Amino acid sequence: MKVVIVESPAKAKTINKYLGKDFEVLASFGHVRDLPSKDGSVEPDSDFAMHWEVDKDSKKRLSDIAKALKGADELILATDPDREGEAISWHVLDVLREKKAIKDKPVRRVVFNAITKQAVTEAMAHPRDIDEPLVEAYLARRALDYLVGFTLSPILWRKLPGSRSAGRVQSVALRLVCEREEEIERFKAEEYWSITTALTQGGKDFEARLYALDGKTVDKLAIKTEADAAAIRAAIKGGTVRITSLEKKPTKRNPYPPFTTSTLQQDASSRLGFSPSRTMQVAQRLYEGVNIAGETVGLITYMRTDGVQMAPEAIDATRRQIGKQFGDNYLPEKARIYQTKAKNAQEAHEAIRPTDLSRNPKNLSHLEPDQLKLYELIWKRTMASQMRAAEIERTTADLALEGADRPITLRATGAVTTFDGFLALYATAKSKEDEADRELPPLAEGDTPAITDCTIDQHFTQPPPRFNEASLIKRMEELGIGRPSTYAATLSVLKDRDYVRLEKRTLIPEDRGRLVTAFLQSFFTRYVEYDFTASLEEQLDEISAGNADYKDVLRQFWKDFSAHATEIKDLRVSEVLDALNALLGDHIFPAREDGGDPRECPNCKSGQLSLKVGRYGAFIGCSNYPDCNYTRQLAESATGEASANTGPRELGVDPETGEEVTVRTGRFGPYVQRGEGKEAKRGSIPKGWDVDLIDLEKALRLINLPREIGNHPESGKPISAGIGRYGPFVLHDGKYANLPDVEEVFTVGINRAVDLLAAKAAGGGRGRAAATVLNKLGDHPDGGEITVRDGRYGPYVNHAKINATLPRDLKPEDVTMEKALELIAAKAAKGGGRKKAAAKKTATKKTTAKKKAAPKKSAKSGAEAGS
After folding, report:
1. Is the bond leading into 728 cis (omega within 30 degrees of zero)?
2. Given 363, 548, 659, 683, which is the most exposed site by the fewest CB atoms within 10 A?
3. Is 3.40.50.140 the CATH classification of the domain at 2-130?
């Protein structure tokens, strides 16, 4: 018996069928251990020793693997063929060795780019050892991310209350979004006019545009005023034109290479409207396998790659399919060979392609709609990559105006597709008509087409577009920032931390994000530079290639970074705010219409407005505080009002009521709705759920909450499950018990519900025992242990006398040291917990005069912290 380890249970199930009874395939469910989110997980002073922690669920899975190994002859590590896959295999093997479960059993590493019987069988015949340089590149990346996060984040919390944290790659991606927004804000629209002349020749109409004026070629911004445009129009309408030159030039349009992770996400976004995370989730399903004629088959190759090449046998299969479907005329003489152009391309994986080109999307109608759409996109791109180029004849005609006071030249252009080539895959009736509309009538030098009309139109230049998720990924790839496996996760972090918001599919930086970016650009300039981040990625690639020692890279980085961070820790908050006032001045102090000083206080007229920080984060206040107590929010956009107007997305019709079901976004976040008007039934979308992945089934489950589970066996009264202010719950006779996970709301049975209610009743009341400690995170930077506990009103984090309740979307086992410190700091800033009670008790002992002075003193100290 041979034990095979893969990541996911779906993958395990498929591979088990291929390998047969002599193999036992088990899933690790991704990474089995990680660096604990507390100080000391990476120790620079101990040669960057890394201390790993196995989570609770993984402990059981690793025990199951160790148990299976007792009666096995061999261990085969078959995780994904990239850095993360190599790291998972290394972690599993390391833990098993610690458990002494390996003994003298041979260990082999196999990789396959596709989950098909042929690919898996061939991989098993060609095992290798774990790629140590690849693992070391992973270790370096994890150590770098940890050290940056745990060094920068506490500085951010102290200097900019309300900010959450800063990551190595996320901070650079955030800078891109913020800088684009600054470009848009600085943009000054410029007026220009276009002139279009309608002509006819031989009964066929065509158009020409102004090309040259007074012997000089004009660009689109040349005509600045309506008067100038009208004068040129009058000249054209008063004259005749003659063709002075005619050029016909054959050109070719070549197909794009097969998909990489980045280009798949971009194309799926523009053509299908998929977010990057949605694209990767659907691609994962296609890779791991779907049911085809009773057999689970992987439909595409591995979907995390920046390689554009295909295996020779895949190219041959693609060319055969093209010849069969379109004819040999659509095949180039030689196969097309593509090379990766992306900076710092990852290890040489294949591009994303179908595992079998003969599986035409037209014959896979039983797939889920999203799966079919994405598979068709991949299938067409792969086929097109090996087809002949489209051949196009472009015609350019220059027409001189005769009888005018000034030399004027018009230009008409047209194109005719003489051979469609790869475009045959994408051709539709509409696109062919559009192509025909661009064709010019038969023309020759000396012809004098008749002028039928001349129109002028006003235009204004447009600012650069905001990034959407796909275009941001493209830009990051061009700069060499991040990797295929990190793109979607990086964007999710920025959204989850409220640094950016997604509005009409574009990324808009929140003021919190702009403050963080401005802080990092002011005080950690080097570490958010694009070139520096890209060069660090290059060093990681050198490690994976075996050309660099990963600890040398860490030493070099940490020496400079830690020294710089130590300097910044001593900065006064006022120094930080002065720098941010200067850097964000145009945004937080916009120009006034009357031309006055934008920083003049509108209340007292003598004070200067400045950025300040208080217990609830950053705001704008007057320098004459406390004599002037003028304050305002940073920007109206921070309220999120704009998102309330996001249009509904139709999901389908409720089969029971016949009403339309939609996904919408309101001032309190995304929700689903059935019907319209006051009688419409609504349900909030829980945090952590991807709005793009909400379908009709999920929407109806939310709308129909609370869900009745059954009657209590003792009272006979109903028990229901729902989602409330404090998270998922079960309810019986006015008494609540928390559910650990949102998904359990839809699955919890009567026995489980009764047990939860009984446990809650047993632990309730005034005589309840002390809260249970669920997890010890480590020591607070100021001293004292931080723990996660289960209290009477749910889970919370504790430090000294401060208790901070967990957000309802955060599970106790997911609380990191970083998150705990943030919650504790926020609670302390609000004067929460026992400190608040103690302060109140002390205040009652003071005189009436001091009582009246106390609020003023408290407010002053809060404002001074931001001055």
Report:
1. no
2. 363
3. yes
How many CB atoms sit inside 10 A of residue 83's CB?
A: 22
CA distance 278 to 268: 9
Dist CA 314 CA 118 (whole Å): 13
User: Which superfamily is assigned to 139-187+471-575 in CATH?
Assistant: Topoisomerase I, domain 2 (1.10.460.10)
Q: What is the dihedral of CA 774, 779, 780, 782, to 10 degrees?
A: 150
Q: Is the peptide bond before 626 cis (omega within 30 degrees of 0)?
A: yes
What single letter denotes the amino acid at residue 378?
I
Residue whose structure tokens are 């705001």: 619
Report the half-sphere exposure of 256 (CA within 13 A, side-chain side).
14
* Residue 37 · residue 95 · CB < 8 Å: no
The H or E element that residue 477 is part of is helix 469-479
Domain boundaries for CATH 1.10.460.10 within the chain: 139-187+471-575
Q: Which two tokens stand for residue 855?
A: 């609020």
Burial 806-822 (b: 16+ CB within 10 A, else e): bebebebeebbbbbbbb
**Residues paired with 803 in a beta bridge:** 798
Q: Which CATH class is domain 261-385?
A: mainly alpha
Q: How confident is the model at residue 766 (pLDDT cuts 50, 70, 90)?
A: very low
Task: Count other C-beta atoms under 10 Å from residue 58's C-beta.
Answer: 20
Backbone angles phi, psi at 308, to 5 degrees: -110, -5
Mean pLDDT over the full length of the chain: 84
Name the residue type at position 764: G
CA distance 766 to 442: 94
Q: 591 — phi, psi (to 5°)?
A: -60, 140
Question: Annotated active-site positions, please?
Answer: 302
Residues 6+ apart with CB under 8 A from 120: 15, 18, 19, 112
State the greatest distance between any 2 C-alpha atoms of the chain, in Å, as a whole number. Answer: 104
Q: Where are the beta strands (DSSP E) in 461-534?
A: 500-503, 506-509
Boundaries of CATH 2.70.20.10 in the chain? 191-254+390-460
pLDDT recorded at residue 225: 95
User: To which residue do tokens 């242990």 refer?
Assistant: 785
Query: For the sheet containing 802-805, what is the strand order?
Result: 772-779, 785-791, 794-799, 802-805
3-class secondary structure, 460: strand
Which H or E run contains 59?
helix 56-70
| CATH 3.40.50.140 placement within the chain | 2-130
The per-type count for the chain, helices as H runs and strands as E runs, is: 24, 34
Q: Report the candidate in 184, 241, 180 with the shortest Cα–Cα distance to residue 207.
A: 241
Q: Does domain 191-254+390-460 have CATH number 3.40.50.300?
A: no
The answer to whether residues 323 and 135 touch, using CB atoms and an 8 Å cutoff, is no
Q: What is the pTM of this model?
A: 0.68
Our CA dihedral for 310, 311, 312, 317, rounded to 10 degrees, sits at: -80
DSSP three-state, residue 796: strand
More confident residue, 607 or 619: 607
Whole-number Å distance between alpha carbons of 836 and 842: 10
Distances (CA, A) of 229 to 199, 233, 449: 18, 6, 22
Note whether 495 and 501 are within 8 A (CB). Answer: yes
- Rounded to an integer, the average pLDDT of 586-610 is 86
Domain with CATH 1.10.290.10 in the chain: 261-385
Residue 435's pLDDT band (boundaries 50, 70, 90)? very low
Give CA–CA dist 478/343, Å, rounded: 6
